[in-house]
Please model this.
Amino acid sequence: DAVLALLKTETFDAVAIELDAARFQALKDPDSYKKLDLIEVFKTGKTILVAANLALGAYQRRLAEQVGIEPGSEMLAADSGATALGLPTLLIDRDVGLTLARCRAALGFWGGAKLITGSALSVFSEDEIAPEEIEKLKTGDMLRSTFGDFATESPALFDALIAERDQFMAAKLREQSAERGLKRVFAVVGAGHLAGMVDALKVSSEVPA
Model:
C-alpha cells in the first residue's frame, strides 16, 4: 500500500527493486519450479541457484500462511505500479546464484555443504516461523533470514549476504540511472540494506565483481 501510494503522489523516471532476474521470475511465478527440466538443471550447473530459489520460495510461503502477507509483495507492487505508469522496472540485486556461491566460499567446504543441506531441507519444512524471526525481517534481509544465523556467526558470510550486495545495488542503481538518463528513481529495498546503500552511493559508482 505504501509503495502504490507513493507512486500515485510522487513523480519518478523509473522504479528499482531489490531483485535479480531469477528471484524476480520466481516471485512472479511461484510455481515455476514445477516446469523445470531437472536433467537440464544439473547439466547447466544451476543446482545451487534452483535450491536457493526453492528455499526462498518455501520460506515466503510459510510466512504468508502465518501472517497473511506474502514477503516480496512490495516488490511486486512496485513492478505493477511502474507498469501502470509506463515506467521501467530496474532489477538491481546481484544474481542469487553468485551470492550463494560467495556464501559457500565464505563458509568453507563443510559450512557450504551445511548451508546447501539446510536450504534443501527448508523446502520441505512445515515448522512455523517464530515471531522473533518475523520481527527480524522488518529490519533485515530475506536471504539472510532464510539462511538462519549463519550471517551473524561469520563476518565473511555477512559480507557476502549483505555488505557486498549493498555496494552492488548502489552501483547498479547509479549505473543504470546514468545509462538511461534517469533523474529520479524510486528504489524499493529491504530495510537491512538502506544504510549500506546510502554509504556506498556516497563513495563509489563502480559495480563490484
In short: Residues 167 and 200 are 5 Å apart (CA to CA). The beta strands are 14-17, 89-91, 185-188.
